[in-house]
Prior knowledge:
binds adenosine-5'-triphosphate; six-stranded mixed beta sheet; MutS; 44% helix; DNA repair; nucleotide-binding; DNA damage
Amino acid sequence: MNADSDASGGVGVDADAVTGPPDGMVDVREELTPMLSQYFDLCAEYEDALLLFQNGDFYQTYCEAAAETARVCELTLTEREDSTGTYPMAGIPVDNAATYVERLLDSGYRVAIAEQVETPEEASGLVDRAVTQVVTPGTVLDDELLGTGTKNYVAAVRRVGETRAVAAVDAATGECLVTSVADDASLAAELDRLTPAELLVGPDASVDREALSVSPMATDHEAAGMSDDEATERLESYVSNPDAVVESDAERRACGTVLAYAEWTQGDDGPLEYVTRITHYDPREALGLDATAIRSLELFENRGAGASETLFSVLDETACALGRRALDGWLRRPLIDREAIEARHDAVAALDDDALAREEIRAALAEVYDLERLTGRVSRGRANARDLRSLGATLDAVPDVLAGLSAVADDAARLDHLRERIDPLDEVRNLIDRAIQPDPPVEVTEGGVIREGFDEELDDLRATEREGRAWVADLEARERERTGIDSLSVGHNQVHGYYIEVTDPNLDRVPDDYTRRQTLKNAERFYTPELKQREDEILGAAERADSLEYERFREVRASVAEETDLLQALADALAELDALATLATVAVEREYVRPTFHDGGVEIEAGRHPVVEETQARFVPNDAALPPGSVTLVTGPNMSGKSTYMRQVALVVVLAQVGSFVPADAARLPVVDRVFTRVGASDDIAGGQSTFMREMTELTSILHEATPASLVLLDEVGRGTSTADGRAIARATVEFLHDEVGATTLFATHYHDLTGLASAHEGVRNLHFAAERDGDDVTFLHRVAEGPASSSYGVEVARLAGVPDPVVERARGLVDSGDETTPETNGHDERVQATLDGATAAEATTADDALDDVAATLRETDLATTTPIEALTLLAELQDRVGE
Ligand SMILES: Nc1ncnc2c1ncn2[C@@H]1O[C@H](COP(=O)(O)OP(=O)(O)OP(=O)(O)O)[C@@H](O)[C@H]1O
């Protein structure tokens, strides 16, 4: 059904041999013992999952699945004997299954967990087992397996006509999103942005997985909800009026499919109660950042060796997990609605100004647990008493959050809105506080969960139990006195319960009402009718109290679950507040300023790179003034700061639209619709495609998709091919962007002659970075300046490095004979013009190639580490080459 996924569902090893009914049992199917027969059936029912079969304290696997589980989880492979034969067996301890399940997931398996759904006492014969959960990469619920920072989506893609719809569910929080796009490229971009852990592709749709930069597990699932009717029905079990949520049949089907699958993974017993919000969004309502841009701007991932700082890590001063995920989402989808952006700026400004209120809010938010996921667990009936306590503690913090929020001096509409939405849910809070013990055990069936005073019947039972135990505790003293045996003792063990122990020498003094219970080496153990009766009372009361507690606990949990909607709304509001307070904190700590918007170009005063400035002892701020639609060529030696500059411009733009203040002294910006990046070939990770091919593919999408409202960063386009071709492509690209696209562009290049384009095109401008001498060292000032870099900056750097004058002069002469463009004159001779016009004579081409060769060598030479002798040798070599 899933055209794109391979048969193994993305699993690395031969998953079919591991999942499904074990081959070794097929022939003896009818003779299997009832338990193995049950195992066999469940394997057959969940054939694309590795089945964990609970047997007491262990989840067992058999046959090939056992061998694979033992291998992946590094467990011992044992055997199980049965009348039909001996089967390999591997067991995972139920108590810490999470880490093993994680390993299985990492190895590409989905894991079906078949639990005992009745106790051996309840069972008549074989204990009943059922799959209560299928753990898949996209539907993991266990906190231990989920990072707190990001959402974990399972997504489904469906297509009707040209409409490709994507629906995604975050199973841990119940968030459900749906959207559509009109072509495959936008589909890939949207999936890249969602970064689903798991992907279902409907029979009507296709996804080019090669085009994705994420690699979700491909799921080939016979989900219901594939037809329009089924999907509608499925959707109606979540929202009463699906048409208010979905905008097309494709979206309806995508929602139906993803919900059906999510239900299946949760044991397939009806709608998931915690999925209360199905949100439709339009990708065009967010600033378009595709995976390439997210990667090259290092929003979440640092690509430098050994470096770990990213834009997210610099910003992430969030107080709680809710805020962390909100901030992550904001960074993936900056806004494009100016009003909405400014509303965030207003809120950040208000929080920025009021340090006291801000810190009060943040201190209160630090007490907030992961309310989104806790609520998910409560409504799934999976929360334990500790979870309820954490939920209660979160609600306890809410009045403080509100107090802080009310104290904020300045007005901001977003903050007002949050004040209205943040509801301490007093009833829920009181209920949890009254009902649940402050520090309850993990197990909810063994007592110690419900507080005294909450339930009279329970209190009575506990009192009976306590009195009984007190009576037993005093028994030893009483019996010693009655019998006169000083060594008499009262004890308890699991097998025999309470007993009175008398050592052999004293046995003649044992009273008549003692009944023998157990004989030891040097002593006898007895009970009395009264002790027996008390014991029964204690045990009876304890047992009834435990089960009553469990009952009460479930009632409390169910009434909290009734408030799922409100709890989720509260979680959303706290998340937003944390994200805003974080942006305010970062703005204060790192001296960011509030940007303003206008209809002109990008105007940044003393801008900084938010990440590089963190790692650089002295970061040099730079201005940027890019008229709308201009193409700015950035030249300068390697390591002079070109990439950093270009990225910092883009990051300022992105941050501003996230709602953040920006690292600059001032910024006036347009609202940008998309940020495109195409960075140097050398930065590419070797993929299946040749780097040049990849570079050209990326360039194609930029040239097709950029609009006059886009910001484009191009770093050394054309580098991956021959110099002549590369230069030609670079020039044609500049011209096309300038003449046809009109996107504001920053273009870093080593093709020096491109800088001549500035005189022919009004919108093409030059900026450069230069190097200077600092004592004996060459230093890069990292300061941007008008005009192109000197055509002979390599030679210039050689001079600064201390290469002897005659050599420098000779080199300069050689370069000058080819190209005399300098930053001062900003001119270009006829030869350059001829090259630009493409009308180069064969003779000139040969000379060009030699010069290109020299220029390339000069560029690649790291002068900072070149000794004078090496420089001399190099120059001699260059001279030879030009001489030829
Ligand atoms: N404005 C700045 N202030 C201080 N240090 C800077 C600044 N800009 C860049 N740097 C430092 O210089 C290094 C090189 O910068 P960058 O990578 O931007 O140079 P580049 O000109 O793009 O080089 P290449 O042409 O090799 O790609 C950076 O890693 C950073 O440490």
